[in-house]
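Researcher: Here's the sequence for the chain we discussed earlier.
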Amino acid sequence: MNITRAEHQRILVVFPHPDDESFVAAGTLAKYIEGGAEVTYACLTLGEMGRNMGIPPFASRVTLPGIRKEELTASSNAIGIQDLRMLGFHDKMIEFEDQQLLDNTVKALLKELNPSLVITFYPGYSVHPDHDATGAAVIRTISQLPVGERPLVHCNAFSSNHEQMIGKADVTVDVTAFLAKKMASIQAHRTQFQAAELVGNRELTDEEIRYRFGTEQFWTYRFD
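Model: Thanks. This is the structure I predict for it:
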């Protein structure tokens, strides 16, 4: 995908957790920002219920929210995001939040920013209940706009059955030129990135980094 300066000048990213931006869209966002886009990242929670405390542990259940707030800021700075919104919802509780409150939060962001592109999770195909509930709130809210006023929505999906259900991604972004920023964003989340299920407990080779992180994929949401 060739991103040009004029393609999207205002982008809204809505994810529930610190580090979602790193693994899902850091390279894409850095690429857009280099092209002149203004990016707002609305992060619903601070990931305060996360299990990972660093290797060796340096966080606790008490200190984790503050540490993850600092990590999120550092990650956003690494990508080049200038407008970071921490919205204060409760981690692992997005699916139980009042839907009207969630929808109104998204609606206010859309009204303020008028983005031409929104990036979020594909509801139902993003594994974590917070991911799915966040994506669902974004889709519900945008679907209520007149067709001509709806921004383009690019969703990330990675559940085991996602390709069987929604097909292959129609947007693949080559981010190899932005891997330094992407890896800096990932590594900014010091409590998380060392965990074996995320990056592994050894240093990755340049080839492994390019293979695992050199492209980012999205599905364009098709409204009925």
